[in-house]
Structures
1.
Amino acid sequence: MEFRSYLIRRLLLLIPVLFGVTILIFGLLQLFPAYQRAMLYVTDPRQLNNIDEIIQMYGLNEPLWKQYFTWLGQVFSGNLGWSKVVGMSVTDAIFNFLPATLELAIFATPIIIIGGIWLGTKSAAHKDGPVDHISRAGAIVGWSLPTFWFGLVLLMIFYGYFTGLFPPERLSTDISVIVHSGEFTRYTKLNFLDGILNWEWSVVFDALRHIVLPVITLSVVNIAFIMRLMRSSMLESLGRGYILTARAKGLPEKTVINKHARRNAMIPVLTVSGYLFAAIVNGVVITESIFNYKGLGWWAWRTAINLDVSSILGFALFSGVLFVLTNLVVDLLYAKFDPRVRLGGSIK
Amino acid sequence: MEKLVEIKEVSVNFYTYEGTVKALNRLSLDIFRGETLGLVGETGCGKTMTALSILRLIMPPGKIENGAILFSPKGSEPVDLLAIDENAIRAIRGSKISMVFQEPGSALNPVFTIGDQISEVILLHKNHEMVSRALSTVSDLAGTNNEWYAPLFKIFWNVQAYLLSQLNSNPQALLPNAVSKLPFLRRFLWRINDEAKKKSVSMLKEVEIPDAERIVNYYPHQLSGGMKQRAVIAMALACSPGFLIADEPTTALDVTIQAQILDLLQRLKDEFKSSVLYITHDLGVAAAICDRIGVMYGGNIVELAGTEEIFDRPLHPYTRALLAAVPRPGEEPRPIPGFIPDPLSPPSGCPFHPRCELAREICSAQNPVLREVSPGHMVSCHMVSGGDIASSN
């Protein structure tokens, strides 16, 4: 019951926040003069001859508030402009590149979160023991590795030395032919999932083979981050009075750590994990570029270096909305884990 | 009188980067069956360390160096709590010896309900009892329920009864233990938790929490400090331990609540026939509820006597100073001069000599031993002889 009212409260709060996001993006758009704003809707260079018509059509020289609502109407009808880099509308581009990144996130996030929490717990439970020293040293190394360097080294070893073992890009050429053939239905555009749904195991295998290296690259850096956070959070939790109570009850050390300490230590990690997922879905520019893995990050990078304004703004809007939604999910999980949030009590 | 706990020359050291801290220095103390023993002293004198070493809960960098703690629960041989293995001490914690902590706010885990936290200790130590209670509940239900819907439920009750009877005859039985680990299926065993919850409710009633059926589902932050401390006491007494350690249970509470909690502890102590080790820095509280009082200073007992004796005839200079320092109306407070010794570099000889008015040469050279000066009255001071203190001329 309390949870439901909390949920409703949070959902209502979502509306003004989303409006805030659109106003910010719209504000950025206002930095450009009207004819440049009109470029958003130019799909063909020949249209440049009658740019004034486009300005008229989208009301780009009307008062600001009027423009905002026209623009918002366009956004709601799915028209974010034309991405000249990839030659399709921005909305299409997002839906085209999102599955690749989502595929990456689906594999990387659980590995990062579960691995980080597990290592952090172990490290805190054996504070100053060999396990702790090794994982802390590992975390410093992992966290300090530059992604572009580490990705290249992985490619050198697993693509170069073991020739073609874990290749870059999303699919091999021959498998790509299968995927784009008529018999293969792309239900979700997540290659491994579509492979399973079409009962085409060569596609599944190939998709997984291509995803190994980017997932490793992402995991190494972020596991280190989550592990360090979890460790410090666990150590704080282990020093609290209720841990002594739990031990004085006669509970085995495993229960004390995995139940009493970890449940409390999870709360800050949860917040960061949510943002981590959002950040990965938002495109991991460097990782995707290194592995030529054509996802949102790759697209964002291309649009940025080509000053494709409509795409950049469309992407920014997408990121903003995604972050707001992730924030909502994190808050709900937060309430699930911490009764003080759910029941509206004060956090001491 | 029979000894329940016999602490023999226990030392506890903390190995910090700054050096070794001697938290307890060859401390010896007997606790008799059925008595309330008070430990008083300033902060840092080792009261809590004494309590924690009985339960062997000293965490690194602290370490119990030597000595023995003999514990003789009713009807069984004495065991040395410092020598038994980890499983054996865990079986004693919470069931035969339990502890109430100073801060009820931090002693309860904020993410579990009061009921969960009390049930946890019951399920840990009284699992078998809960299983047999659940079994009798479910067999009653299967045998006597003649409602129209009974045949529909009978199969569930029979499965529950079968699993519970397996568990009842052998706690390690494979099938029910496997079931208890599987999601959904483990619901067949929900009656065990239900019995533990009923027991939790009855414990909450025992500690005079109103509306216990509702409070049992509350989270700690929804309760007041006094209520939390009652819940902690309920948790400590859930397995009717023979020995309760109360570490300043009323320090964090205001005075009216304090009186209620003290009354409650007194009543429960008689009801459960427990012995209590009551740690406090408040001499008034100690006077009100303790049978004997031990005064601690610098990691050891400096004076130990019956409550009346210690208030009427304090012998150790520290005890006298402590009693004089109690504020009285119309009088200037008389604090003890100086500070408690630096635990990293304690003074030589008697730890109290730098602050003692009576200190002589021998006091800084030699640490006095605790000896009986009159029946039941023990003091460790060079200046005390023949049951009286030397004059300070």
2.
Amino acid sequence: MSGLAKSPARRDPPFLVAGLIAVAVAYLALVVFLPLVIVFVEALRKGVGDYLAGIGDAEALSAIKLTLLVAAIAVPLNTIFGLAAAWCVTKFDFKGKNLLVTLIDLPFSISPVISGLIYVLLYGANGWFGPWLQEHNIQIIFSVTGIVLATTLVTLPFVARELIPLMQAQGSDEEAAATTLGANGLRTFFLITLPNVKWALMYGVLLSTARAMGEFGAVSVVSGKIRGLTATMPLQVEILYNEYNFVAAFAVASLLALFALVTLAVKTLLEARFSDELAAQRWR
Amino acid sequence: MTDQLTRRGIIAGLGLGAAGLATGAFGQAAKAGPAVTLLNVSYDPTRELYVQYNPLFAANWAGSHGGQRVTVQQSHGGSGSQARAVIDGLPADVVTLALAYDVDSIAARGLINRDWQKRLPNNSAPYTSTMIFLVRKGNPWKLKTWSDLVKPGIKVVTPNPKTSGGARWNYVAAWAFALRQPGGNATTAEAFVKALYKNVPVLDTGARASTTTFAQRRIGDVLITWENEAHLAIKEFGAANFDIVYPPFSVLAEPSVAVVDKVVDRKKTRAAAEAYLQYLYSEAGQGVAARNFYRPRNPTVAARYRAQFPALEMISIDHPALGGWARVQATHFASGGVYDRITAK
């Protein structure tokens, strides 16, 4: 801490310090805080009654259920996949490792709309598997299945991306030690690897949950926008907004924002509670 | 606000009435078939129309089918993109789109029989509409007809003809207007629409998005839109902010409806789907259309709502000068067509 006192920043003139802080605060307020506030202000513009009516509407409720369902399927899938991928990439050497890492990153770099379109081209009526699926009466695109697929693809990198750098830094010494002491692979994984990465894992899960609930682009392509059936919360917000039902649109949007805020709060709370352990792990 | 409340009240009342009728009839006749679900894939401005029409149809169907319950699901978007979704496998029992061409493009993929337009009266268009102007209160730029829209500095809001059916009607109306001017021909008309689209600051994907751009985000001096959409905007945003301007000449817009044969045969829903579209022609269906500012076909209903629909000269898409949708689409909206040419930088 004593090093900070002598740092050049501390010798800057006060007006410069104040000015820079003001710029930073104003920027955050304009870009992050105000939009968030506006969502709640607009949602409550006509009172709590209209707000609750907006959320309690049958179509809104089905959108909320669908969104939670999609997240409940996509996030566990990606957690398992992310763990497995990170484990493979960081603890072993094999041919095609770089290719695998690139593939994991792919959903980050392609537009979500393209992600959705890919599924239409594969499973749509005129897609590669379309005729076969139709013969067997299986509906993938424009159904919940398609929405889950698109969401899973878009949120695929989050867990793996959180884990890989940490596991790389940790190396595989502890696992090697466990193996030489006679632990089998599964035991090593549950007693050494998993406890070592649990914070990063949790962070990845929270991030992918938030993204899974908020995804618009990919889902809008594969949803078909059937009201009360394949409209997730972000799509329902668009539908309501387009129906001039601004209060209800913002009410659903505020609920979505609330989900995200709760996610962040949980993360902060856990971090505060286990900060010592976390710090110990970072410096390991 | 009050308007919205009463409207919601009416809708809720209709819904309750329909549900009551359905369950009531259900109690009497145990022989009612299993519940049927239909999916109506429609274009943007019909949301309010079908919210009111669906419970009416459900009640009527239940009444004549021993209480059988019909639920109609709705999907809305730009007409072209909705047609695309049906082609890609969105299982629509019926499509109620902005123009015949979009239904034709589904028919071209074999999902709808090619003779669809002859299966229902009036070219399978149970209601018509026309494209008119919505301007800021008091019409500050004195915009009266299409030639006023190409004046420098006027900001015109209209959606993208590539994705929106309404936008294509807008374009066709402007084109036909230019053709009719003294000395008008394809060259002068192309110059005219080029000047018009030069004045467009935002091209949204659908009619509803354009209305929001104009009314909510307050962009532009004039919105070219469906007659029904203009009236709805006045209803939602208040007459204090906007005026409707009827140009003396516009296009006769015929939004088309069709049963999607491949889907109803697979889902075994043909009877209900056909009845759903036929009921649009009934007096009750025509009344709902008229109350939502679609011009009814039924003469009795049309007479009742005459005051609501000012007379203006409307050109049909099948007029020899235009030559029908197939020709208009190929000439203007296909890749490399006139529209691409006039919007090229």
